[in-house]
């Protein structure tokens, strides 16, 4: 629709713009009712669970994986059925947006044929044609489509461009078992075609990472199978769905005492817990692959054999497993450890490491339960080898009979809804910093030096722990020592408050490329709204290689860099330089024994606090934290600021400023104790030329992601940008109108009303303007923080959209 401003008054033009915007992002006729499609809404009483998923890897564009103005018909075998279906598409490893012109889901008949009339067209935030941002993922809207347990679905995705014309990596998963046809290709847009004109077949899934179902029945959630090629199903029978997670799903369906349960397979052939291997290591991918899987309730971990083959010791691998256990418990998930199955060709030293790791899994009590896969398939007469009847022939991978034996070794009572965990989460984020990528430079160099970094915590506690991040690094990061203490002034710490930090029991450690690590808890009395000093000593030179640094620029807080050497914990810290930047420090957690959750402030420079006074903690999330800290203890929550200057909700700036859609899982949804999110995003999209419809579609995806994880989400209206041209101001007002009137979020924070000039609503009140007509002053941030209704955070309220079971 085209609007003519010459025939309409400004008021009439704006009203028409709102109507057009709403139509542009609304439901597409013939797919689902409005109440079911808007933002992926799950009607009340219909929980959403993952029924199929795969873990993607990055692949350089080649002729072998090329898609060129073609439709992919991709076949997936679901575990549990439901009344509605949605699909998750991923451009996780792409460095450029991925355009999808159409998508469709249906029942598969045979080969590339579909059951006529089954399924339907997929929409994403109401759109049939859309782009997936670099590093991002999208959920489709729910489609009313009844599917039975163990159905084969055909998911069509039409890619109009030539993937070989770009250097952007392709997000895909290679077939296990080898040779299994997962995708059929046809020229042009053939989405939904009953007779698919196949021109090629592929043994990989492209851009497809999940299928969810909702059901009227009470559901048991999803079980995540997390591992390497033995979980992925290498050497199982082609086209027989004979992986151990497949057999587990069938056993669960046959047990009436267990509620309908999805099983999602997140194995990657060649994957490792720590360093190297195929795909991102387990510590790097666990958050995005396992922890935010739809409806995840339990995780089974079977990983480590490739680390041993690569020369890692059991002690190091155990450190990695402990990290996975901590993260699962933080999310309230039960996590089970699987013993490593035999590798008959391994030399004695590596067999010793396998046995040592298995002994720890069986006896440590750190996993919530043990699944003894090793005992299920080993040869009793020669326990270092697999029973011949279960061996595929390579002495490492089971055949389908072996995978069945593995599945039969799993006690199904572990998945009853009332099964207690042996350990539960005890963490609430009290301070955070969202990390971005930075090339090594003199401005961020650390060369055998100690960083003393200052963090202003939101809530008090008697125990703390720290998260360090090498998310954007392409090489391991060695940390020789670390400490946390209460800060006195400047670089000084309060005497007697220093606590040495260990990570999985080790005072020195290596953070794998792409990964985060959590320290062990330390006892430390910390008052609310106080400052902590976190010391880390890096013995290497960050400028010696090409690995990007994981940093947070725009910290508005001074970090102290020492003279050369390990100065962790020193009272007289030898300051050689300072910087307004946090390096590798992404979160501080407090004990949850005093508090009930965390509010995440998710936004751009206005959330980051740009142009507020440095070292004074005057950002609007700081104001919110002070207001919450004044409440009775039962209502206090942590506040985590994950604002990034220049951030956009849809199209980001690559690794140096990934879009909100790309960073939401790691920056928001896996933060310790997250219960609520306040979103203030969209002004940079509009400044870059995005329409209100674009921003609203993206915000709907943000809402869906939060509700899928059972997190309440509140949308903040966009504050004035006084220098914006009329067309962009009109887009801002249209977004704000939608935010104020939609029922898709759990509430509204009217930041715009808090700071705008009543006499000229297109501009900020002069007393609140920092001088650039966009960013508030300290007084403006104070007004924003005070505009947040604290009753939004009443515990016990449920998200407007039913979360995963």
Description:
It is globular and about 75 Å long. The chain has 18 helices and 46 strands. It starts with 9 loop residues before the first helix and ends in a 19-residue tail after the last helix. α13 packs parallel to α15. By secondary structure, the chain is of the alpha+beta class. The protein has a six-stranded antiparallel β-sheet, with no helix packed on it. A six-stranded antiparallel β-sheet has the order 30-29-34-26-36-37, with no helix packed on it. Strands 1, 4, 9, 10 and 16 form a five-stranded antiparallel β-sheet that branches. A hairpin with a 2-residue loop joins β45 and β46.
How is the quaternary structure best described? single chain
What's the β-strand tally?
46
- Proportion of helical residues: 10-25%
Amount of beta strand: 25-35%
Report the major sheet. Answer: 6 strands, antiparallel
Strand order of the largest sheet: 7-6-11-3-13-14
Could you write a compact summary of the structure shown?
With 805 residues, this protein is α+β, with helices and mostly antiparallel strands. The chain contains 18 helices and 46 strands.
What's the structural blueprint in terms of helices and strands?
Elements: H1 10-25, H2 34-37, E1 48-53, E2 57-59, E3 68-77, E4 82-90, E5 98-100, E6 102-107, E7 120-121, E8 130-132, E9 137-139, E10 143-147, E11 152-162, E12 170-174, E13 183-187, E14 200-202, E15 204-206, E16 208-214, E17 222-227, H3 229-232, H4 244-253, E18 262-267, H5 282-291, E19 296-302, H6 305-309, H7 314-330, E20 334-338, H8 348-363, E21 369-371, H9 373-377, E22 378-379, E23 382-386, H10 400-408, E24 427-432, E25 436-438, E26 447-456, E27 461-469, E28 477-479, E29 481-486, E30 499-500, E31 509-511, E32 516-518, E33 522-526, E34 531-541, E35 549-553, E36 559-562, E37 575-579, E38 581-583, E39 585-591, E40 598-603, H11 605-608, H12 620-629, E41 638-641, H13 660-669, E42 674-680, H14 683-687, H15 692-708, E43 712-716, H16 726-741, E44 748-749, H17 751-755, E45 756-757, E46 760-764, H18 778-786
Parallel strand pairs: 17-18, 17-19, 19-20, 20-21, 40-41, 40-42, 42-43, 43-44
Antiparallel strand pairs: 1-16, 2-12, 3-11, 3-13, 4-9, 4-10, 4-16, 5-8, 6-7, 6-11, 12-15, 13-14, 22-23, 24-39, 25-35, 26-34, 26-36, 27-32, 27-33, 27-39, 28-31, 29-30, 29-34, 35-38, 36-37, 45-46
Helix pairs in contact: 1-15, 1-16, 4-10, 5-7, 7-8, 12-18, 13-15, 15-16
């Amino acid at each position: 629709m085209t609007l003519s401003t010459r025939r309409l008054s400004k008021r009439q033009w704006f009203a028409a713009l709102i109507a057009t915007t709403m139509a542009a992002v609304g439901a597409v006729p013939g797919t689902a009712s409005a109440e079911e499609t808007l933002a992926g809404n799950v009607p009340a009483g219909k929980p959403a669970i993952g029924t199929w998923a795969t873990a993607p890897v990055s692949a350089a564009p080649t002729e072998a994986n090329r898609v060129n103005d073609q439709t992919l018909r991709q076949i997936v075998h679901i575990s549990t059925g439901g009344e509605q279906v949605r699909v998750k598409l991923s451009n996780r490893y792409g460095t450029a947006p991925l355009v999808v012109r159409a998508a469709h889901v249906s029942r598969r008949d045979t080969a590339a044929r579909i059951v006529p009339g089954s399924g339907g067209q997929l929409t994403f935030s109401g759109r049939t044609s859309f782009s997936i941002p670099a590093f991002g993922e999208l959920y489709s809207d729910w489609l009313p489509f009844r599917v039975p347990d163990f159905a084969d679905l055909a998911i069509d995705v039409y890619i109009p461009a030539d993937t070989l014309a770009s250097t952007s990596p392709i997000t895909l998963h290679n077939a296990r078992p080898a040779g299994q046809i997962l995708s059929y290709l046809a020229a042009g847009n053939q989405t939904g075609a009953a007779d698919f004109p196949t021109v090629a077949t592929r043994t990989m899934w492209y851009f497809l990472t999940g299928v969810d179902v909702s059901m009227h029945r009470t559901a048991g959630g999803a079980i995540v199978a997390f591992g390497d090629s033995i979980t992925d199903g290498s050497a199982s029978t082609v086209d027989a769905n004979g992986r151990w997670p497949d057999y587990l799903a069938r056993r669960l369906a046959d047990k009436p005492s267990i509620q309908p349960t999805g099983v999602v397979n997140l194995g990657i052939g060649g994957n490792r817990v720590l360093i190297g291997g195929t795909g991102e290591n387990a510590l790097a991918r666990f958050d995005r692959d396992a922890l935010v899987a739809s409806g995840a309730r339990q995780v089974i971990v079977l990983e480590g054999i490739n680390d041993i083959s690569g020369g890692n010791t059991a002690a190091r691998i155990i450190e990695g497993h402990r990290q996975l256990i901590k993260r699962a418990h933080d999310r309230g998930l039960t996590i089970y450890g699987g013993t490593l199955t035999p590798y008959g060709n391994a030399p004695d030293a590596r067999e010793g490491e396998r046995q040592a790791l298995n002994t720890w899994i069986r006896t440590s009590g750190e996993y919530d339960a043990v699944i003894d896969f090793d005992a299920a398939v080993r040869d009793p007469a020669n326990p270092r080898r697999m029973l011949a009847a279960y061996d595929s022939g390579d002495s490492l991978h089971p055949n389908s009979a072996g995978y069945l034996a593995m599945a039969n070794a799993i006690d199904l009572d572990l998945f009853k809804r009332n099964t207690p965990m042996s350990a539960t989460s005890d963490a609430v984020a009290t301070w955070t910093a969202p990390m971005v990528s930075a090339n090594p430079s003199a401005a961020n160099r650390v060369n055998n030096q100690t960083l003393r970094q200052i963090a202003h915590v939101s809530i008090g506690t008697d125990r703390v722990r720290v998260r360090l991040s090498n998310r954007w690094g392409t090489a391991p990061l060695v940390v020789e020592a670390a400490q946390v203490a209460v800060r006195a002034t400047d670089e000084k710490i309060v005497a007697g408050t220093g606590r040495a930090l260990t990570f999985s029991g080790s005072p020195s450690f290596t953070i794998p490329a792409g990964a985060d690590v959590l320290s062990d808890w330390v006892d430390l009395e910390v008052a609310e709204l106080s400052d902590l000093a976190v010391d880390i000593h890096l013995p290497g030179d960050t400028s010696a290689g090409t690995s990007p640094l994981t940093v947070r620029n725009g910290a508005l807080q001074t970090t102290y860099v020492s003279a050369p050497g390990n100065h962790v914990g020193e009272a007289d810290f030898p300051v050689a330089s300072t910087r307004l930047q946090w390096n590798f420090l992404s979160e501080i957690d407090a004990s949850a024994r005093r508090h009930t959750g965390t509010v995440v402030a998710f936004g751009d420079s206005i959330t980051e606090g740009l142009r507020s006074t440095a070292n004074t903690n005057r950002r609007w999330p700081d104001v919110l934290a002070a207001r919450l800290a004044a409440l009775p203890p039962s209502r206090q929550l942590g506040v985590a600021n994950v604002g990034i200057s220049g951030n956009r909700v849809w199209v980001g700036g690559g690794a140096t400023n990934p879009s909100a859609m790309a960073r939401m899982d790691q920056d928001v949804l896996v933060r310790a104790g997250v219960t609520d999110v306040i979103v203030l995003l969209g002004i940079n999209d509009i400044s870059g030329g995005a329409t209100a419809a674009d921003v609203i579609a993206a915000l709907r995806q943000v809402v869906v992601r939060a509700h899928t994880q059972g997190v309440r989400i509140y949308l903040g209206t966009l504050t004035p940008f006084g220098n914006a041209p009329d067309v962009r101001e009109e887009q801002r007002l249209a977004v704000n109108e939608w935010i104020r009137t939609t029922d898709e979020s759990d509430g509204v924070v009217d930041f715009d009303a808090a700071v705008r000039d009543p006499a000229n609503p297109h501009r900020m009140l002069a007393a609140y303007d920092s001088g650039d007509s966009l960013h508030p002053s300290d007084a403006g941030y104070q007004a924003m923080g005070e505009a947040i209704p604290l009753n939004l955070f009443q515990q016990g309220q449920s998200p407007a959209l039913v979360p995963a079971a």
